[in-house]
Amino acid sequence: MSSNIEEKSNLLEVKKLRTSFYDGKSKLEAVRGIDFTVKKGEVLGIVGESGSGKSVMVKSILGIIPTNAKIDAGEIILDGKHIENLSKKDKRAIRGREIAMIFQDPMTALNPLKKAGDHLVELLIRVRGMKKKEAKNEAIELLRMVGIPSPETRVNQYPHEFSGGMRQRVLIAMALACNPKLLIADEPTTALDVTIQAQILELLKKLQTENDMSVVLITHDLGVVATICSRILVMYAGMVMEEGMAHEIFYSPKHPYTKALINSIPRVDGEKTRLKPIKGSAPSLTKVAKGCPFAERCELAIDKCFTEMPVYKSFSSTQKCMCFLAGEGDKLDG
Ligand SMILES: Nc1ncnc2c1ncn2[C@@H]1O[C@H](COP(=O)(O)OP(=O)(O)OP(=O)(O)O)[C@@H](O)[C@H]1O
Ligand SMILES: [Mg+2]
């Protein structure tokens, strides 16, 4: 319920975040002034096409952007403490203990020469200060918790002995090993089969509830967020186009881009599965236009969409959208 979510306090606040890549004289504006919050105990979905800045944004929060990138501006507040200007050492301490992250490709994140359990054991010794024997037992418990059958045997096996879905479970176990307050999952199921995807999402939701964690789930697939997210941010070209509770985004979307994304979810139509891609391609981020970044692709764009940046309009206490035409009683509301 939306009233519930408003009562929850903020775990993470991101204000006016801007991150760019620098290559000689050229600048690519990957994240262009993003504001959002993650409440305690909520699952926030972040959706947007490839290149919309989702990964750069969360890497900025974690302090793991590549060396050719720079945070130009913004504030990042975790549990009331500013973390944007922390030293590398202090940021590293936050990663794992307070914020954990899981990425798309479970194979590259695991060392193929190291047993699955040893990944966990080392982490538990380093971060939670456990002794080896205790860490091994805890590793088995963590594997059990993420639904890996026969964890006593599995703990001694190597990553290649696990399926893709099971490897992703090992990574989730690693992320949870330190009881983080926030888990950021960047496309955690993209590399997996659809049925395995569903199992992993179910697992994330279960663990989130049991551990009262907050989760940020990033995906380019709106269908994925529908199953477990209570609130959704829709990103485009480094900006948030729309934000709202899941039911607002799905049943009452306001932004033409959100609508196009919803229409592009594959749906079973009679016997056919239809996919309606959004026409056109994302704008250049090296020469950003003055107006709305979606204007070039928007079938409803009017002149000022190309010359002026729309400001956010609120549609409820939880839903806002950046579009001149939204809520104007025109065909956009149809
Ligand atoms: N290492 C890099 N050097 C230069 N530009 C980069 C680098 N990494 C990302 N970018 C650019 O930053 C922008 C945002 O990229 P980002 O990876 O955050 O997108 P994304 O929304 O995560 O996409 P995807 O869904 O494909 O993961 C893109 O224009 C991308 O080309
Ligand atoms: Mg990404």
Keywords:
Rossmann fold; 14 strands; 12 helices; about 325 residues; alpha/beta; about 35% helix; globular; four-stranded antiparallel sheet; 2 domains; binds adenosine-5'-triphosphate; binds magnesium ion
How would you summarize the topology of this molecule?
Blueprint: H1 2-7, E1 10-23, E2 26-39, E3 43-47, H2 54-62, E4 69-78, E5 81-82, H3 88-97, E6 99-102, H4 116-128, H5 132-145, H6 151-154, H7 164-176, E7 182-186, H8 194-211, E8 214-219, H9 222-228, E9 231-236, E10 239-245, H10 246-251, H11 256-263, E11 267-269, E12 272-274, H12 303-307, E13 312-314, E14 320-322
Parallel strand pairs: 3-8, 3-9, 6-7, 7-8
Antiparallel strand pairs: 1-2, 1-4, 4-5, 9-10, 10-14, 11-12, 13-14
Helix pairs in contact: 4-5, 4-7, 5-7, 7-8
The chain binds adenosine-5'-triphosphate (ATP) and magnesium ion.
Description:
With 334 residues, the chain is of the alpha/beta class. The chain has 2 domains: 2-98 and 180-322, Rossmann fold (3-Layer(aba) Sandwich), CATH 3.40.50; 107-179, no CATH class. The chain has helices at 2-7, 54-62, 88-97, 116-128, 132-145, 151-154, 164-176, 194-211, 222-228, 246-251, 256-263, 303-307, and strands spanning 10-23, 26-39, 43-47, 69-78, 81-82, 99-102, 182-186, 214-219, 231-236, 239-245, 267-269, 272-274, 312-314, 320-322. An 8-stranded mixed beta sheet has the order 6-7-8-3-9-10-14-13, sandwiched between helices. α8 (194-211) links the parallel β7 and β8. It starts with a helix and ends in a 12-residue tail after the last strand. 40% of the residues are buried. Bound molecules: adenosine-5'-triphosphate and magnesium ion. The site of magnesium ion has 3 residues, from α2. Adenosine-5'-triphosphate binds at residues 21, 28, 30, 48, 50-56, 66, 68, 220, 285.
